[in-house]
Write a structure and sequence with these properties.
Radius of gyration: 12 Å
Strand content: 5-15%
Number of domains: 1
Number of helices: 2
Number of strands: 4
Low-confidence stretches: none
Largest sheet: 4 strands, antiparallel
Distance between the termini: 20 Å
CATH architecture: 2-Layer Sandwich
Mean pLDDT: 95
Structural class: alpha+beta
CATH class: Alpha Beta
Order of helices and strands: EEHEHE
């Protein structure tokens, strides 16, 4: 499924505002508007187990609320950026 605004897959995290905002695939997939839902990048957390060449900081893919099964949560929609 693709974002109705940018056309990129909802299951893939996107970043905006020089990496300050990151989309949560779970929040995005559950969004009624079918758009990427962005949150502040520091609300995702990181783990050494998530370190890859593409993501050397080990950032989590889902936001903390979704990982804790308390999401999806509202955020900034792709069309608002």
């Amino acid at each position: 499924m693709s974002c109705t605004h940018c056309g990129k897959p909802l299951r893939r995290s996107q970043t905006r505002d020089n990496g300050r905002l990151k989309s949560c695939p779970n929040c995005s997939k559950q969004s009624a508007t079918r758009e990427h839902v962005f949150h502040p990048a520091d609300s995702f957390g990181a783990s050494d187990e998530r370190v890859t060449e593409e993501h050397p900081d080990g950032v989590q893919s889902w936001c903390a609320a979704c990982r804790a099964k308390q999401g999806p949560v509202e955020g900034i929609l792709c069309s608002s950026l």
